[in-house]
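quick one, 300 residues, struct below
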Amino acid sequence: MEQTTEMRESKFFKSSKIFENVTLISGLAGEQCYLVEGSERALLIDGLTGVGSLRAYIRELTDLPVLVVVTHGHLDHTGAVFEYRECFIHPEDMALMSSGMHSGEEARLEFATRKPQEGITLADVVPAVPVKTYPIYDGDMFDLGGVMIEVIAVPGHTRGTVVLLDRANRAVYSGDACNLNTLLNLPGSASIEEYLESLHHLKQYEGAFDVMWGGHGKRAVPKSAVEDGIRLCEEILTGKDDRIAVPPTSKRSKEGCLLAKQRGENFLPVEGGYCNIVYTLDGLHRAEKQPIREIPYQNR
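---
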């Protein structure tokens, strides 16, 4: 598994090389994005919270023109789209990204400063502006010039969640699709039943990658996390998981949150593996899709 090497640090961002042509960039709250460079252009996978100018920071890292793609529409992954004013996103998450709960400046500042940050104010937040969106779908390819990045749809955390496959580096840039705290308890999340289907789809690509670099956490997880997630979904659907009652994961969480497996040291499930799931009992099975309900920020 690749290890990161510290490279550059600013008031708002830190970065490190994880592959020769891939830079991991983290924001104030530890949220992560990835800059993948080809010979002709670069692809920014996710955009942090939009606190501090990520676009200016990236100009110090590459001279290439930059395309922006987001793995899903949550505020800790889409901040930079308001600087670039365009992005690639799955259509299922376009409304989610532009909703007040994920585009609002105060909401993004609150996320970035969950750990106290001295001197960070609303003036540091990139204002929300209209963004031109380009739809992406399962199987689409980004040609960066000698580097091909493939889109894989993995509905679950949100209905529009995608991951990006980098066959050359045998890696997937997975956002929040499958990790030690996979949240399926949020407005816009798919059901456990649908997520199980998504993981089976992602597993079809297991011969093309070894690790997944996610939207949080300083290290990659092995591809076995996908199989761990499949097993957990099956246990949840048959009532064989631990079903631990947990507090809402955020102000945007649904009520009645359950954790599939007891956590031990380093956030890892006691039984082993690299995936855990937070869900609600009313989100087990496929249901008619409901629109994202807009909630005034001050009431959340």
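The chain has a mean pLDDT of 93.
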